[in-house]
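Lab manual, section 2.4: Encoding a predicted structure.

Procedure: take the sequence of the chain (107 residues), apply the prediction step described in section 2.3, and record the output as C-alpha cells. A sample record is shown.
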Amino acid sequence: LFRDTHGVAALEFALAMPILLIVFTLLLEGGRMYWMRNSMQHALDMAGRAVMMSATMTDEQILAEMSTQFTAMNFTPSATTVDTLTIGGVTYKRMNATVPFTTVVMY
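Recorded output:
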C-alpha cells in the first residue's frame, strides 16, 4: 500500500493549489494598490505643479485642478481638501485626497 503512487500528483496539486492561489491573489491586489497609489500621487503632483505656476490660486481653484487631474487618471476621490499652513513665516498649501480601494477578489 505504501508503494502505490496512483493519485500522488492529484494530492500534491490539491495541497499546493490553495497556497498558490492565495499568493497570486495577494500579488495581484498588492500590485493594483501600488499602481493606484502611484497614479494618485502623480495626479497630486500635477495639481501641485499647477499651483506653483500660479501662486494666486484660491483653494476652490486648487480643488478644481485636483478634480481635473483625478478625472484624467480615471479616479473618483471620496474626499479632497486643501489646507493653508504657515511655518516660519512661509505659507504652504497642503493637498489631501482619499480614494477608496476596492478589491477585485472578494474575500
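Check your result against the sample. Strands lie at 79-87, 90-98.
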